[in-house]
Write a structure and sequence with these properties.
single chain; five-stranded parallel β-sheet; elongated; alpha/beta; about 500 residues; six-stranded antiparallel β-barrel
Length: about 500
């Protein structure tokens, strides 16, 4: 399902105490609010007003319906009047979808002349939302609380970001990952508990033989290859005469995509240590598949492959770009401290500042032919890098704010795509904090997702979240991780 296929159910709380006239007004206003929020153009998904809930049975029923509706990515609650919170107890305990408490009110301002007791009885959101907030806090239910006037763009923007996180959660729960080969030998951070990850995040991670992929590659027709190479020529700058290498990458792209689609997989990994029967490590092929929304992880890193796919799903329709990344080397000159991110071949072209070039160069490892790849510089702008690591018994998501820059060097002999950035709060402090938290060398870099969006996703999936930002210090982070370690051991 794509972003536009999901909807969020607007469930409004009240009770019979106020009489039918007030309840009719509440329902009418709720429907109006949903319609106007949808028309704002700010939200990525549709809000559907479902019910003004007045009894425990109504709440239970709407929760059951939401739990089993694939198109419902979450519920948004608002207490227009006063809704006694014990009515919500069983429903909220049974809720299996992301939950946002939208603390707002129908009117923006207090009307000086019109305010009387009838107005007060009808407009009790300040009363009702606090009662409603207690029961979720009492039950310790993960939820997002958004407070503000429902027509303000900033408020709707916050709601829209939460929607994107919820779509990422829905996508995650159905995600299948195809692995070609195992993890790179003796590497620790790319390992993980696949059963535990499936239980927590929904990912189904399985392996397919490289030999099967080779059979698919050999079955690709010349006409299919011709058509895809023509697409390459129209979309990128062809900066090589080695068309045979480019054609082989086209065959790899077609073959991998066929296997992924046949198995319903949206992410894949491979490793240069297992290329049996292949002529090249998929470079251009992997870049192209990421550009189409598939997740990828090098050296068998299935966790970063899956996270790339999830973040691409939650940022669908945004224009910044998201892709697989690796911290490669540093520039440590005083006043010019930057990290250079790249990979052997596979950096997603959605990160490119300008039109990518197709080039062919030796790889140096893997013992195969020279692979074609896209070469480009990344965009300048604010972004995040994200790592998901298995801490043994729990998952930790580490998110670091970064500022990407135009590379300060031309690096004419570096035959790979590259992105250069300043890590927050600065390179050395940020790297210390990343290492203290156990962050991997592989990450997802996104110009579209931010820490708020990823924190909401982590809350929905019940995993630990660590944010390294402009205010983080190694000392504060060590204290935070110590307390989180205690808390997670008690869960």
């Amino acid at each position: 399902m794509s972003m536009k296929d999901y909807e969020f159910w607007f469930v409004v709380g009240s009770q019979f105490l106020y009489g039918p006239e007030v309840l009719d007004t509440v329902a009418s206003r709720a429907a109006e609010m949903a319609e106007k929020m949808n028309a704002s153009g700010v939200l990525p998904c549709k809000i559907v007003y479902k019910v003004t809930a007045k009894t425990p049975e109504e709440i239970d029923n709407i929760v059951k319906e939401a739990n089993f509706c694939d198109s419902c990515a979450g519920i948004i609650t608002w207490m227009h009047t006063f809704s006694p919170s014990k009515m919500w107890l069983n429903g909220l305990k049974n809720l299996q979808k992301p939950y946002c408490h939208f603390a707002t009110q129908y009117n923006r301002d207090i009307p000086n002349e019109e305010i009387d007791m009838d107005f007060m009885n009808l407009n009790q959101a300040a009363h009702g939302d606090r009662e409603h907030g207690f029961i979720a806090a009492r039950l310790r239910i993960p939820r997002k609380v958004i407070m503000g006037y429902w027509q303000d763009e900033k408020v709707l923007s916050n709601l829209g970001k939460w929607m994107r996180s919820a779509v990422g959660a829905a996508f995650s729960k159905k995600l299948k990952v195809m692995r070609f080969g195992d993890n790179m030998r003796n590497v620790a951070v790319t390992e993980g508990d696949k059963v535990g990850v499936q239980e927590k995040l929904g990912w189904q991670v399985n392996t397919w033989p490289v030999g099967t992929l080779v059979e698919y590659i050999n079955a690709v027709s010349e006409s299919e290859t011709d058509a895809l190479v023509d697409e390459y020529i129209s979309k990128y700058e062809m900066a090589t005469d080695n068309i045979a290498a480019v054609r082989y990458q086209a065959k790899e792209e077609i073959a991998i995509k066929k296997m992924l689609d046949e198995q319903g997989c949206k992410a894949f990994s491979n490793t240069f240590e297992d290329l049996y029967g292949m002529e090249q490590l998929p470079g251009l092929a992997s870049q192209r598949l990421m550009e189409q929304g598939y997740g990828y992880g090098g050296e068998g890193d299935w966790k970063v492959a899956a996270m790339t796919a999830v973040i691409k799903a939650m940022t669908e329709g945004m224009n910044g770009g998201t892709g697989f990344m690796e911290d490669y080397t540093y520039n440590l000159a005083p006043g010019a401290e930057y990290s250079l991110g790249a990979h052997m071949l596979e950096v997603c072209p959605t990160l490119a500042a300008d039109k990518p070039r197709i080039e062919v160069h030796p790889l140096g490892i893997g013992g195969k032919g020279d692979p074609a790849r896209l070469v480009f510089e990344g965009k300048a702008g604010k972004a995040v890098v994200v790592s998901l690591v298995d801490m043994g018994g729990r998952l930790r998501m580490i998110c670091q704010d970064i500022e990407c820059v135009k590379p300060i060097l031309d690096m004419p002999n570096l035959p790979v795509a590259r992105v250069m950035w300043k890590a927050m709060p600065d390179l050395c402090t940020g790297a210390e904090c990343w290492i203290i938290a156990g962050g991997a060398h592989h990450t997802v870099l996104s110009y579209d997702a931010d820490a708020d969006m990823l924190r909401d996703f982590a809350r929905m999936m019940d995993i630990e979240f660590v944010h390294i930002n402009k205010d983080t210090t190694p000392e504060s982070l060590e204290n935070e991780l110590f307390l989180k370690d205690l808390a997670w051991k008690l869960k």
